[in-house]
Each structure stands twice: as structure tokens, then as C-alpha cells.
Amino acid sequence: MLDSVIDLLACPHCESAMDLDDTVVLCERGHSFDVARQGYVTLLTGAATRFTGDTAEMIADRAEFLGAGHYDPIRDAVATACTSAPSDTGVLEVGAGTGQYLARVLDEMPGSRGIGLDVSKPAVRRIARSHPRTGAVLADAWERIPVRSGSLGHVLSVFAPRNASEVHRILEPGGTLVVVTPTPEHLGELVSLPGMVSVDERKTERLSAALSGRFERRDRTEVRFVMELTRPALTGLVGMGPSAFHLTAQQRTEMVEALPDGFEVTASVVVSTWVRQHGDRIRQDGGISDG
């Protein structure tokens, strides 16, 4: 649904305004970008990315896990954080994955539209069909984000990369950045198993350091709940996260088969809301990622 957000996009080469002409996105200076048959547009500059995009299997596992409602309390908290500071200008989710968090926000904000940005092709293919008011963009959040300066009311970062300077640029004055970060307790029953990726205990400290000078924290909500998961759900949970890059499919299967059916896993995250500060007193370092 790129037509609903085309006025928010900017050319990755020259930063000029964009227009949609059937299956081609064009900028005012003649740069053109084909719209894939799945409905997304690639707005990469050609520079090498710092990240490996999620695989088709990881995206499928995440879509099924979220679709089953296991993380609904987190999705609800993200939507609440956005509706507490309503804006109809637009919502961007960086590292949007399946687009399901963004879709939940748009359901609660009927006057807004969304951009789902990811560096993974399987991700943007799914984002393109995640919501009728979402446009899917393949781009690198660590480069210049192909969005017009000051054009958005909200940016979401849910277990995803954050480029603080770019988020500051694309948000309107007083716009909000909503960030979901795991606590050290998050999925603790699983991350203690061999091969699983653990949570950095300094995430909150690193987040505050990266956003300092550009954003002021307005709210902080802790979300904690226990999930009783079947073995198929556990397999999907392991397969959708960063541990999937470190474990083979056989290793994941063997690990889950050793667990009881109905295994309890703790979800524990912090949903924080940061308000874009006015003025030019911002730091020049990069952003931060939860991985």
C-alpha cells in the first residue's frame, strides 16, 4: 500500500520527494525504483549493511508465534504508548519484521498510516500485506532512512536497531520514539540452554546513552508475564530470534524435544517512550541495537 505513504518517503540518493507511477517509485530528480510484485519498494543506497536480515524461516516462525497471541501484552503496551501521544502524521517501525506490532498500532490510530522498514526481503514481503495502511520499504536503518525530515509522529523500535540521529531527524518536533527492550529475565528459562543468545544486562544503560541529548524519556512501562508453551510454540520462539543464527534446525529440534510440553517461559520487557527534543544540540555518534 505504498500509495498511502508515498508522500512521506524521500529518495535515498538525493533526498527529494517521491511519487508513485504504477509499479515505479520516482523522485523529483529522476531516480527510479521498481515496486516488487509483492508490493514493497527497495530504497537502498548500495552501501553494505551492518546487519544480516532475518531469513524466510525466521519471519514465518515470528508471524505464527505473534499470530497465536503469545506476545499480545507487549503489542498492547506498544499501542498504548502510541495512543497516549496521538498523531496522524505517520508511524514508522524500524526492523519491522512481520509488521504485526505496527498493524496493532494502526488499528488503534485509524487516522494514521505506517511505514514498515526492514533490511530482510522475506520481512518486507510480509509487511506489504500486514495492514491496508502500511507501506513496506526495504532499507538499512543504519544508513540515511528514506523518509522526509520531520514527517512522522511516531517511530517504533521493537527488539530492533535504532539509529538515534536518523530517528531524531524524521520525527516531527515533539514526536515520540517507542522502544521495546528485553530485561535480563526475558526468556530466561530458554536462554540458559546451550547455544541460546543471552540478553545484555547493560541494554537500558546503553539505550539511555544513545538517546541522550536527542530525546527525553517520558514514560517507562515494565511488561512481564509467563507463557505456557507447547513444543511447536517453543520451536517457533527459538527459531524467530537471534539464536536461530547460531543453532541448526536439528539442534533446535533436539533442544525443544528435551523440554516438557507446556513449558513455562517468562516474557519480560520494558516499553519506554522518548520525546524528540528541539534544537540542534545532538550528539554525532551512531545508534544502538538490541540485536
Describe this structure in words.
There is one protein chain. The chain has helices at residues 56-67, 72-83, 100-108, 121-127, 164-170, 188-191, 203-211, 231-240, 249-257, and strands at 18-21, 24-27, 32-34, 41-42, 91-94, 114-118, 134-138, 152-158, 161-162, 171-182, 215-229, 263-276, 288-289. With 291 residues, the protein is α/β, with parallel strands linked by helices. The strands form three sheets. The protein has an eight-stranded mixed sheet, with helices on both faces. Strand 2 and strand 3 (32-34) form a beta hairpin. 47% of the residues are buried.
Quick overview:
With about 290 residues, the protein is of the alpha/beta class. About 25% of the residues lie in helices and about 25% in strands. The longest helix has 12 residues, at about 55-65.
Write the layout of secondary structure elements.
Elements lengths: L17 E4 L2 E4 L4 E3 L6 E2 L13 H12 L4 H12 L7 E4 L5 H9 L5 E5 L2 H7 L6 E5 L13 E7 L2 E2 L1 H7 E12 L5 H4 L11 H9 L3 E15 L1 H10 L8 H9 L5 E14 L11 E2 L2
Parallel strand pairs: 4-7, 5-6, 5-8, 6-7, 8-10
Antiparallel strand pairs: 1-2, 2-3, 9-13, 10-12, 11-12
Helix pairs in contact: 1-8, 2-3, 8-9
Q: The biggest beta sheet, please?
A: 8 strands, mixed
Q: Work out the radius of gyration.
A: 19 Å
Major sheet: arrangement of strands = 4-7-6-5-8-10-12-11
Oligomer: single chain
Low-confidence stretches: 280-291
Shape: globular
- Overall residue-averaged pLDDT value: 89
